Amino acid sequence: MRKTSDKKGTPLPREAPSAFPEKLKQRLYPAVLELFADNDFHQVNIREIYRKSGISPSTIYRYFPSKEDLLFAILDEKIAEIGLLVREHIKGIESAREVFRKIFWVTMDYYDRNPGVAVTAFITVPMRAWMKERSYRREDASAILAGVVKRARERGELDPAIRTSQILDQYYMHCYRQIHLWYFNGMTTRLVDRIPVFFNVLWKTLSPPD
Length: 210
Hints:
The chain is 65% helix and 0% strand. The protein is mainly α. The chain has a domain at 76-206: Tetracycline Repressor, domain 2, CATH 1.10.357.10.
């Protein structure tokens, strides 16, 4: 049985087995995300995933003990792609304001291009279940933001009274809020177009006092 926590009881991240064939992944992952984006979490089961993907339950169970293992492994992998994109897009940008704007743009653009990931992660998945996962804490996002904040503080571009953890809270708060509104309104607009609505207010919060 796969270990789900370390010796201290800290949850370990769920990861797709390295032996999981890429061809199967290309068939399975889109089917899973579509099912969870279109249905309540508890309505989706391995049988439905088999019908959608054409991959037999025995093959799925060979790699993933449960639908939760499967789903959280997919979300882990997909959301980690945002961090990789952010690192590339912020290279060479000096202004802290523009770095933060670019972080939001990359994030929202990713979810615009991958709406199944956005709906599954922010709407479908029960938070109680995901909070038990190490991936919920997104350590990659924390590491990126810590580096951005450090450089911005050195240049005096941030309010020194605001902690890095509070800035990370602001990032997630705006992501959750905008994705919830986008979903509630029928996903008829682009998430990136919502950035000007909140970003100027956010930056006033983060900027040094006059």
